[in-house]
Design a protein that fits this description.
Elements (H helix, E strand, L loop, with lengths): L1 E6 L2 H14 L11 E4 L2 E6 L4 H6 L5 E5 H7 L4 E5 L5 E8 L12 E4 L2 H10 L5 E4 L6 H4 L5 E6 L3 H5 L2 E10 L1 E5 L1 H6 L1 H16 L5
Parallel strand pairs: 1-3, 1-4, 7-8, 7-9
Antiparallel strand pairs: 2-3, 4-11, 5-11, 6-9, 6-10
The protein binds 1-O-pyrophosphono-5-O-phosphono-alpha-D-ribofuranose.
1-O-pyrophosphono-5-O-phosphono-alpha-D-ribofuranose binds next to strand 9 and helix 6.
Amino acid sequence: MLTVALPKGRIAEDTLAIFRQIFKQDFRFEDRRLVLESGDFKFLLVRNQDVPTYVYHQSADIGVVGLDVLEESGLDLVRLLDLKGGFCRVAIGMRNEDQLDYNKPDIVVATKMINITNRFFSSKAISPKIIKLYGSIELAPLVGLANMIVDIVETGSTMKQNGLKVVDTIMESTTHLIANKSSFIEKKPEILSLYSEFEKIIRDGGRI
Ligand code: PRP
């Protein structure tokens, strides 16, 4: 039995659709249920940011998650396969009228991605003030809470519509299939057989 942690929403739906296609079984969560057990699989429906936690602590063997979320978690997990979907960037944004200058004193960064932000600025030997927010990050520079933000950019519309521009890119992210190291060793045949099925689908242009 393999336990699979899926993030609620589109990614869970797309992943289950691929499982249905591979195993010809009707994998579907019932209404508000968070666990789905069927055949050789148990699926857990979790919050996006919690996928690495469930996999790391071995409540799930494998999971599907964006590289941005995985990097932010800082957890040491096996990256099995790039599922090529959910492309986005983790970028630095500033007001259109402002100029990027990493040497400027008093840099204040607002973000919900504290760890990625810390690592990025540490690698430049800069220690800005970092303010943790939980959403609507683009608002922070508009009201003077911060002079830059670190945030996810997908289409770029949110920044654009709020008078912000991307001034630097920290990383690019796509959805990945991940595993914890113990499960990868103990359940290697099952994980590798699933990996090769997914790999074929991705090679043929499938995306999650
Ligand atoms: C994310 C992200 C940006 C927006 C980027 O926010 O934090 O705000 O999407 O998308 P875009 O480049 O296509 O405009 P989300 O919708 O998750 O909401 P949040 O602000 O509550 O985090």
